[in-house]
Amino acid sequence: MIFVVLLTALAIAPGYIESTSSSSCQTSMELDNSCGSYCYKVVKPILGHINKLHNQVSSSQERLNAEEMEAKYFDVTTRLRSLEAKQAVFEQKLLATEQKIADLTDKSSVQIGDKQYYIEDRHKMNWFASKYRCQELGGHLASIQNEAEYNALIGKLDRNHEYWIDINDLAEEGLFLSDTTGRRAPYISWDPTEWNGHFQPDNRDNVEHCVHLFHRNRSLKMNDADCKFQLNFICEV
């Protein structure tokens, strides 16, 4: 008898859970007709318990959905803060670079064609430090492309100074490359003067691997020199 009652309860449970007060009365009448008042008294608590479980499951699902949304929100917020931090660092570097460029005097910054040069006449550095200084300014050591550009540039230089440019043969002796492009230097104007029976480039003492401009015969010519020498330099920015 109890088994029949349980089957009856399970069969009508969905209807009971979703029913209104009027449909509950109808269910009561159906139970009275099916198995009498005894069945109804037994089944009613079971239906109430099933309804309670249904409400608990619904509440748990809502809580899980809320926790999932909260986790997603936390993840998005964390990523956003990370991007904001990276942007702040980038902006600081940009401001620092702009400030360094702004500090350049009109005398040391010259425009030739579509290129802007910074001519360092005040401080001397070795070739490597000069290269990094130019990079700090957002550029590189001057990369001379042709004779016209060369003549225009040397016309702006103090001929009492010597200047590093981007040409070197550090990778392979005698193969002079532009440090800017990593390719053969497109233009070179060596000093034609003979020095102790040698013409430039002579790689004296096997230590001369960086190219600089120096005063020779009323002009500035190119010569290979020890990269550790402290010279002025030209940046292309």
TrEMBL record:
A Pfam family that this protein carries is: Lectin_C
Q: Does the keyword Signal apply?
A: yes
Q: Signal peptide position in this chain?
A: 1-19
Under PANTHER family, the record lists: MANNOSE, PHOSPHOLIPASE, LECTIN RECEPTOR RELATED (PTHR22803)
User: Which keywords accompany this UniProt record?
Assistant: Coiled coil, Signal
- Name the chain's protein: C-type lectin domain-containing protein
Domain (C-type lectin) spans 112-236
Stored PROSITE patterns:
C_TYPE_LECTIN_2
Give start-end ranges for the coiled-coil region(s).
Answer: 50-100
Q: Which InterPro entries match?
A: C-type_lectin-like, C-type_lectin-like/link_sf, C-type_lectin/snaclec_domain, CTDL_fold
